[in-house]
Prior knowledge:
The protein is mainly beta. It has strands at about 10-15, 35-40, 55-60, 70, 85, 95-110, 110-115, 125-130. The protein has no helices and eight strands. The chain starts with 11 loop residues before the first strand and ends in an 8-residue tail after the last strand.
Amino acid sequence: MTSETYDLRPIGRVRSPLTDAADAPKQGDEGAPPAEIVLDSAVAAGTAGLRPGDEVLVFTWLHQADREVLAVHPRGDHTRPVTGVFATRAPHRPNPIGLHRVTIVDIAGTTLTVHGLEAIDGTPVLDLKPVLGPTAER
Length: 138
């Protein structure tokens, strides 16, 4: 592997009733409870233009992941064949970047209340990006 490194700084953290990865849904549309993304005040200006009802992609750092895993049984189902992590959404991978499509329910200062976020409490948030439709321009 290459020895290059990159500096990632969290812009906030997830606040969620989910505290154990083993109990969290595999995907946000599989029963994730409402959660909050609490952003650092230094990035407050970055929320301008976000509104309740918007869909955004939340990029997280899956801080409890095993970075040595390269192959898994998809969804932890041992009846399924072992598959390389790059062909799955497995959290355990060399760079455990989480990708979550959520809907903003409310915005209060630098706290976004969202639906569809299956990340556990305390998960670092790396970035937010809007979900674009075919003709959207931002």
